[in-house]
């Protein structure tokens, strides 16, 4: 909102002088800066200095100059530096404080289906499942913050070979179906999976079980439902711990009833061809830097694959929701798969939605390699939660007496802020000890800052008014940082990047702590100054709370 309003003022002056609209951005030299003069110089065949000084001169003549600016100046070789007036800064702060969601809004209202989580049935969730869950949940919350229609779907994996392997293992061990437990699944899956890698005959048997299940075999359907029930109960328990939830709990199997429709559409449009007995869709396009392999829709034995179920699911989502966007939050290594699926779907015309793959990198240990336990295994999420909780509780004696709910919130803050402060498309190093610290760019530092500000508000009578005075540079820095919220959250929305919010929160927390340390509110005898400072502290606290919620972090009662 700040940039928009300032651009309107300087563009009005620029257009009055015969030039085009101007844009501005944050500056390290002043508050904001315009560097469009070089482009104007090329267009109008004038020196950027001549244009810049001409625009600056006209801005300084404005009758309402002081309502917006403290200083506007030209700087060689071609920049306009803008310093905001105290009046303008405080006017925007009043608006933010008095308006729902700080007055931040997006004009477009679209329907989104967001597909994230994607755990595989019959397998325990491990540390690699944390990223899609919390990145996807945060993106969902950001979309909803801007009043978009959002349908979230966990879309669990229940269509692949692992289901056939587990059914085979249960039958081989002669475990009565009613007696099968989650622990049985956790033991059976890795042992049979290992066996299939060693024995091609066993692997073929498991593949045939999977195929027959896909075709509606009633006996295997009964086994599948039991496996699904046990797995989903455990998956929901872990997602509940992470404060992650979904509107839809659909799996790949739910796409079965749409598979024949999609297959018929592909046939009608002559998009299916036979290659080595398999039915494939050519997804290559002229201009591709390298040839894209075809999407395999059906194997030579008649079994459908992940590409088939993803296409059928897109078709189902189009029928049910008519979305404007379908977003997929998965590992970056699935980029090729989704490129094939998206191209095949668009060729077939089964959706009008814009399809986006929001890929993410891996969680690595301090050695830079994918995060493992000491024995070289990928840790289960349950074990990771316990490890982080143990480190937190042993870091300070008073932490041992903290109640379970507050402990859970702090463990979540440690894990989530460690992840979401990184661009989702990058790998990152997870250092438990570093991210558990209350100092630095960590979740506990965010919580500590909020609780500190909240304590000030509780001890003092908060003010609902603010004057037009800014008292010192530290005070001004915090107010300017608050003004940046609009642009940062909009970038998080448009780029589907929660890291913008995490970065902003960290910078805001630094400014807030500097403010608190340098401006002694409790001992201040100037009532106007004290009221102004309490107003700013309260607004900062409100922003921290709402933005922490967007990155799925709840605030505990104590730290």
Present the secondary structure layout.
Layout: H1 2-16, E1 25-26, E2 32-34, H2 37-44, H3 48-60, H4 65-68, E3 69-75, E4 79-84, H5 86-98, E5 111-115, H6 130-145, E6 149-153, H7 161-172, H8 182-198, H9 200-214, H10 218-241, H11 256-268, E7 272-275, E8 278-281, E9 295-298, H12 306-321, E10 325-331, H13 335-348, E11 354-360, E12 363-364, H14 381-395, H15 404-420, E13 428-429, H16 432-435, H17 443-459, H18 473-483, H19 485-495, H20 499-518, H21 527-550
Parallel strand pairs: 5-6, 5-10, 10-11, 12-13
Antiparallel strand pairs: 1-2, 2-4, 3-4, 7-8, 8-9
Helix pairs in contact: 2-3, 5-18, 7-8, 7-9, 8-9, 11-12, 12-13, 14-15, 15-17, 17-20, 17-21, 18-20, 18-21, 19-20, 20-21
Instruction: State Rg.
Output: 28 Å
Computed structural class = alpha/beta
Determine the fraction of residues in helical runs and give it as a percent range. Answer: 40-55%
Q: What is the number of helices?
A: 21
Query: In whole angstroms, how far apart are the ends?
Result: 35 Å
Average pLDDT, all residues: 94
Shape type? globular
- Roughly what fraction of the amino acids lie in strands? 5-15%
Number of strands: 13
Description:
There is one protein chain. This protein has helices spanning 2-16, 37-44, 48-60, 65-68, 86-98, 130-145, 161-172, 182-198, 200-214, 218-241, 256-268, 306-321, 335-348, 381-395, 404-420, 432-435, 443-459, 473-483, 485-495, 499-518, 527-550, and strands at 25-26, 32-34, 69-75, 79-84, 111-115, 149-153, 272-275, 278-281, 295-298, 325-331, 354-360, 363-364, 428-429. It is α/β, with parallel strands linked by helices and 559 residues long. A hairpin with a 5-residue loop joins β1 (25-26) and β2 (32-34). The chain is globular, with a radius of gyration of 28 Å.
